Amino acid sequence: MFHFKQFDLEHERSTLKIGTDAVLLAALTQTDTAQSVLDIGCGCGVIAFCLAQKLAENQIVPNIVGIDVDADSIAEARKNAERFPLLPNNSFHFEQISLQEFANQKNTHSFDLIVSNPPYFHDNLKPQDKSRLQSKHGDGQLSFQELADGVDRLLSPEGRFALILPPTEMEEFHQMVNQKWHCVKTVFIQPTEKKPVFRIVREYCHTIFLETKTHLSIRNASLQYTSEYLELVKPYLTIR
Fold it and tell me: N or C: which terminal CB in the chain sees fewer CB atoms within 10 Å?
């Protein structure tokens, strides 16, 4: 069980355990007044539930959908939804289905906000653990092109898509989509102030906006958490 400030989540059976990437993506994603949210590759639902907290604080009761190909992940997400204290259980719908299948369903509605912490090791050495392979390796599961095509079908005209990737993979994804989407937000994330960027969060939309670019260091030179990081995750985590 993982304990956030306002809710608890089971994640022991999910393909990927709750970690920094998921919390960073949720904390950095702009929710505005989104009425419908899609989490692609939702796992136990951590990003969906963190976004749900933001929306609940703005007195919004959204429709939140999470999809994942892993049955255990969806089972945990559904169980987590039953105990989530900030929104009614019927605000959430978690389905075991691929993005490709979901995007092709005739009755699928568009979404105001789509988020994903997608698989990205397309060519790297694969891990032994099959669930770990499924969660972070895209081979045979979800290519960047399939991710982009699915989002393109499902994003509402005024909607936003946010994702987190390592720099090399983000550059690959960005080159693929920058002719049809507009990047409106980029956050370069460093593990410490002296180490290179290891993750990038980007938000895209169909409408032209001025892009904002910022840097975030998780720890300072003394390996203490930076005040910026502590402020960012303050709504979710108690860090001593």
Answer: C
Q: How far apart are CA 133 and CA 16, in angstroms?
A: 10
CB atoms within 10 A of CB 160: 25
* DSSP annotation string for 1-17: -EE-SS-EE--SSSSS-
Quote the pTM value: 0.92
Specify the DSSP element, H or E, that contains 216.
Answer: strand 212-219
Asked if 188 and 177 touch (Cβ cutoff 8 Å), the reply is: no
Residue 37 belongs to what H/E stretch?
Answer: strand 36-40
In the predicted structure, residue 69 carries a pLDDT above the cut 60:
yes
Sign of CA dihedral 232, 60, 78, 65: negative
Token pair, residue 219, equals 């720890």
In which element (H, E) is residue 111 found? strand 111-116
Q: Are 47 and 27 in contact (CB under 8 A)?
A: no
Over residues 224-234, the pLDDT tens digits come to 999 999 999 99
Q: 153: Cβ–Cβ under 8 A, 6 or more apart, which residues?
A: 103
Positive or negative torsion for Cα 206, 207, 208, 214: negative
pLDDT of residue 17: 87
Number of H helices, E strands in the chain: 8, 10
